Amino acid sequence: MRSIRTSAPRRRGRRGVVAATGLVAALALTATACGGSGEDKASGKPEATTSQAADNDTGEVRIPSDIADRLKEHGVDVDKWKEGGWKDWDKDKWLREAKDFVNPVIEGLWKPERMMSAKEADKRITTKDASADQGVSDPEPAPVTAQAEKTPYHRNAAPVGKVFFDSPEGPSVCSGTVIKDVNHPGKSNLVWTAGHCVHAGGNGGWYRNLVFVPAYNDYGKSEADLSNANPTEIAPYGNWWADWAATSNGWIKGGSETGGAGAAYDYAVLHVKPEQGSKSLEETVGAALDVDFSAPSAAEAGKMGAWGYPAAPPYNGLKMFKCLDTPGRLSLSSSLPTMYRIGCTMTGGSSGGGWFRVLNGKTVLVSNTSIGPTDNTWLAGPQLGRDAEALYQSMSKNYGGQ
Questions:
Q1: According to the UniProt entry, where is the signal peptide (predicted)?
Q2: 23-399 has which fold?
Q3: How far apart are CA 69 and CA 105, in angstroms?
Q4: Neighbouring C-beta atoms of residue 32, cutoff 10 Å
Q5: pLDDT tens string 180-209
Q6: What CA–CA distance (Å, rounded) separates 239 from 162?
Q7: What pTM was estimated for this model as a whole?
């Protein structure tokens, strides 16, 4: 698949999470709840590159002067950005370097109807592409039919949500997961997703208006039921804008429409802030997951589960689905790291969604959805090793406390 490329009051905290006694149960449920906000409180080789944008303490959108100066060097009028200047996708002005990322809050841009119109960011590869493996791939897995997650998601699933952004093709969507911030325990504002959900790769630049919506459509309502939905039904914890983003140089340089050489490095971390409110993301949703950077081999990893919001037919992007399978190896080239591959029928829109496994009795994020085939029978995700950990640590240390 193409890596399957593929604001509201906070009302609910994550309720106490049942201790998992079996693998499926453990993968289906989030790790220890950390306490929510509002009415319900929880009971019971590529070098990492980082980019930034920022607001001042008053909530008024400000772009740091050094970034503003660089944008102007690229011919971008910063003052007009929020008034629609971001819609200019002139290739000469499509900012691609890490230092050029900018994502000022445009309050009210991501309304429910605009979210529902977003198309999947989908990366598909052909059978021929997938077989160019130099003999190190395992046999193609049997398809695993994606299962709908139980509702409400904030009680039954890991802290997964949808990542919305604007691309030259229009409003687009991926999936993402709230992860812990090791340097700011209990107050994480970090989200894990795919690199192709934030940056176009070798032939483009940073996407715009990046927003994370945790537990999107928490009760799994139908399109008809959501036709007159208020923002809290769609976004129970509000909209969280990325004020910093980081992905790998491997994706920035090698990513393509089918994943390309960047697929093995197709991961990203967002640092987010609420469109409204002041509490951290982890405090607001009541949960976050650790990331496993040990990069276990497929044989060592055990069963994995992939979660996300598939949006391409036969799905419509409104509901969360999951697949559980034992991973095999996928190699796109002998010069690239091996990827994990599992059977799964999720389609575009699930890109960036977390892959989880149980490690030492708790659920951890071990990969994310990156690519899949045109017939939607399996998914593949990158191994997260030292390079991914360096990217994560950089985000946490430099921006996590802001």
A1: 1-33
A2: Thrombin, subunit H (2.40.10)
A3: 19
A4: 15
A5: 999 999 999 999 999 999 999 988 999 999
A6: 10
A7: 0.85
